[in-house]
Amino acid sequence: MKILSAEQLNEADKITLENEHISSTRLMERAASLVFNEIHTRLEGADIKIKIFCGIGNNGGDGLVIGRLLHKYGYNVEVFIVDYSDKRSDDFLINYDRYKKESSSWPEVIEENTDFPEISPGEFVVDAIFGIGLNRPAKGWLAKLLKHINNSGAFTLAVDMPSGLFPNKAPQKDATIIKANYTLSFQNPKLTFFLPETMNFIGELQILDIGLDRDFLKEVKAVAQLIGKREARQLYRPRKRNSHKGDYGHTLVVGGSYGKIGSIVLSAKAVLRSGAGLCSVYTPKCGYQILQTALPEAMVITDKAEKELSEIKPGLEPDVVCFGMGAGKSQTTANAFKALLEETEKPMLIDADGLNMISENMDFLNALPKNSILTPHPKELERLIGSWEDDFEKMEKVKDFSKTNDLILVLKGSHSFVFSEGNMYINNSGNPGMATAGSGDVLSGIIAGLMSQKYEPLVAAILGVYMHGLAGDICAEEMGVETLISGDLCDYLGQAFLALEKE
Ligand SMILES: NC(=O)C1=CN([C@@H]2O[C@H](COP(=O)(O)OP(=O)(O)OC[C@H]3O[C@@H](n4cnc5c(N)ncnc54)[C@H](O)[C@@H]3O)[C@@H](O)[C@H]2O)[C@@H](O)CC1
Ligand SMILES: [K+]
């Protein structure tokens, strides 16, 4: 699904009105009716107190339509106009009048010195103060009102966006923002919903298709692509009946050091579980028995050194090399890594200490085969590209870094991001249970395993990240988020592939 900016959504809005020959009031009625339907379906006429806070722009107009419909269906609803400016939008005014005509009660106006209405924890609040039109932080009494709603403990539903959040820029550090339990957003998700600093304001997210112009939406260049099951399924290639293990490639996992052999056990297991035909592991001597015992399906080749990688001479030609997990970053290992980079021509996957060694020797980037994949977590990323002011600056820096160096970057996080050629893909699977030791080693293995099966590196990265999250989701559903450990992610990959294929 495409993630669009406020400007693009406004453009889509305009084009829809022209092409469908409808008024903006009609479009507002359509969008807000969908919100009403969602509320009505869930509340089923319950006698719960509903308070709707409407701004004076079109988000407020939506709120008034929702209020009118709830009123019509007999709900116990109170509407408040948050009167922060006299620049009321036309559709706000039309719906303000309609509300007054069709409902028995008039909305209450909240201004600078008005006492805020009391809100109790059992009530239902609809936040229709600001949507994508927010152009500066909420200040003064307005900020106090947002805090008052947040402190009430009431269930809060945000219309289009939680008020106070910008769709495509970072909020100020001390900004006041509605902390929604649920967000019903129109047509396309907004970038801010997926960034670490702002994602927690959204609560649960649902996108409502308000029927904006299909052709425009198809053509417009997305700010980013959100990768869900539908998108992942399109990337997946089922196996042919008539095939053998050679068709699925040979992955070489290189890494491990004394005390950190577990990391490559996890990566190699994920390589095989994601469908690679063969997996070899190159490791210091101390890893030999551990690997052969823990993972008899993998072949093991050892370095001449006992406890660290000193010279990477596997004596085979793999389809893909997956490097770095548990490798350590001694000078000896760094030299061996540099030599490996220089000898390798096919795109590689670099993780963990491989990334740290690059950060300490940025010239290694020149030797990295084009289209290789780097999989940093935020700390590793900071070592690679330096610090950033906010999430939006971070995204721009990563985009530039991946473009300049001709590589694919997977930024791991609650929503992992994949960057390639100036494009951005946001993963929508996964859960907090996956914040556990070794989860990244499994991800590297999955992506490398897919690369060895001749998935293009970018496709392997996007699909791999999705499958990793999906395995985690299935797993968490069965065992809970606390209990999930990385080995489980490998074990549940099979169920994830089955779930991907199922409608
Ligand atoms: N674009 C679309 O396709 C559709 C949009 N609709 C609704 O329209 C909304 C956007 O409406 P608007 O563009 O009128 O914008 P909003 O209703 O989000 O807010 C706009 C008003 O607030 C003012 N403002 C912004 N930040 C402020 C601040 N911090 N303090 C005080 N005033 C501030 C602006 O100058 C503007 O007058 C969407 O979020 C959605 O709810 C829907 O009605 C249907 C279709
Ligand atoms: K809102």
UniProtKB/TrEMBL annotation:
<dbReference type="InterPro" id="IPR017953">
    <property type="entry name" value="Carbohydrate_kinase_pred_CS"/>
</dbReference>
<keyword id="KW-0630">Potassium</keyword>
<keyword id="KW-0479">Metal-binding</keyword>
<keyword id="KW-0413">Isomerase</keyword>
<keyword id="KW-0456">Lyase</keyword>
<feature type="binding site">
    <location>
        <position position="163"/>
    </location>
    <ligand>
        <name>K(+)</name>
    </ligand>
</feature>
<comment type="similarity">
    <text>In the N-terminal section; belongs to the NnrE/AIBP family.</text>
</comment>
<feature type="binding site">
    <location>
        <position position="440"/>
    </location>
    <ligand>
        <name>AMP</name>
    </ligand>
</feature>
<keyword id="KW-0520">NAD</keyword>
<feature type="binding site">
    <location>
        <position position="59"/>
    </location>
    <ligand>
        <name>K(+)</name>
    </ligand>
</feature>
<comment type="subunit">
    <text>Homotetramer.</text>
</comment>
<keyword id="KW-0521">NADP</keyword>
<feature type="binding site">
    <location>
        <position position="127"/>
    </location>
    <ligand>
        <name>K(+)</name>
    </ligand>
</feature>
<dbReference type="GO" id="GO:0052855">
    <property type="term" value="F:ADP-dependent NAD(P)H-hydrate dehydratase activity"/>
</dbReference>
<comment type="similarity">
    <text>Belongs to the NnrE/AIBP family.</text>
</comment>
<feature type="domain" description="YjeF C-terminal">
    <location>
        <begin position="228"/>
        <end position="500"/>
    </location>
</feature>
<feature type="domain" description="YjeF N-terminal">
    <location>
        <begin position="9"/>
        <end position="218"/>
    </location>
</feature>
<keyword id="KW-0808">Transferase</keyword>
<keyword id="KW-0067">ATP-binding</keyword>
<dbReference type="InterPro" id="IPR030677">
    <property type="entry name" value="Nnr"/>
</dbReference>
<dbReference type="GO" id="GO:0046872">
    <property type="term" value="F:metal ion binding"/>
</dbReference>
<dbReference type="InterPro" id="IPR036652">
    <property type="entry name" value="YjeF_N_dom_sf"/>
</dbReference>
<comment type="function">
    <text>Catalyzes the epimerization of the S- and R-forms of NAD(P)HX, a damaged form of NAD(P)H that is a result of enzymatic or heat-dependent hydration. This is a prerequisite for the S-specific NAD(P)H-hydrate dehydratase to allow the repair of both epimers of NAD(P)HX.</text>
</comment>
<dbReference type="Pfam" id="PF03853">
    <property type="entry name" value="YjeF_N"/>
</dbReference>
<feature type="binding site">
    <location>
        <position position="377"/>
    </location>
    <ligand>
        <name>(6S)-NADPHX</name>
    </ligand>
</feature>
<protein>
    <recommendedName>
        <fullName>Bifunctional NAD(P)H-hydrate repair enzyme</fullName>
        <ecNumber>4.2.1.136</ecNumber>
        <ecNumber>5.1.99.6</ecNumber>
    </recommendedName>
</protein>
<feature type="binding site">
    <location>
        <begin position="412"/>
        <end position="416"/>
    </location>
    <ligand>
        <name>AMP</name>
    </ligand>
</feature>
<feature type="binding site">
    <location>
        <begin position="131"/>
        <end position="137"/>
    </location>
    <ligand>
        <name>(6S)-NADPHX</name>
    </ligand>
</feature>
<keyword id="KW-0547">Nucleotide-binding</keyword>
<feature type="binding site">
    <location>
        <position position="326"/>
    </location>
    <ligand>
        <name>(6S)-NADPHX</name>
    </ligand>
</feature>
<comment type="function">
    <text>Catalyzes the dehydration of the S-form of NAD(P)HX at the expense of ADP, which is converted to AMP. Together with NAD(P)HX epimerase, which catalyzes the epimerization of the S- and R-forms, the enzyme allows the repair of both epimers of NAD(P)HX, a damaged form of NAD(P)H that is a result of enzymatic or heat-dependent hydration.</text>
</comment>
<dbReference type="InterPro" id="IPR029056">
    <property type="entry name" value="Ribokinase-like"/>
</dbReference>
<dbReference type="GO" id="GO:0005524">
    <property type="term" value="F:ATP binding"/>
</dbReference>
<feature type="binding site">
    <location>
        <position position="441"/>
    </location>
    <ligand>
        <name>(6S)-NADPHX</name>
    </ligand>
</feature>
<keyword id="KW-0511">Multifunctional enzyme</keyword>
<dbReference type="InterPro" id="IPR004443">
    <property type="entry name" value="YjeF_N_dom"/>
</dbReference>
<dbReference type="GO" id="GO:0016301">
    <property type="term" value="F:kinase activity"/>
</dbReference>
<dbReference type="GO" id="GO:0052856">
    <property type="term" value="F:NAD(P)HX epimerase activity"/>
</dbReference>
<feature type="binding site">
    <location>
        <begin position="58"/>
        <end position="62"/>
    </location>
    <ligand>
        <name>(6S)-NADPHX</name>
    </ligand>
</feature>
<dbReference type="Pfam" id="PF01256">
    <property type="entry name" value="Carb_kinase"/>
</dbReference>
<dbReference type="InterPro" id="IPR000631">
    <property type="entry name" value="CARKD"/>
</dbReference>
<dbReference type="GO" id="GO:0110051">
    <property type="term" value="P:metabolite repair"/>
</dbReference>
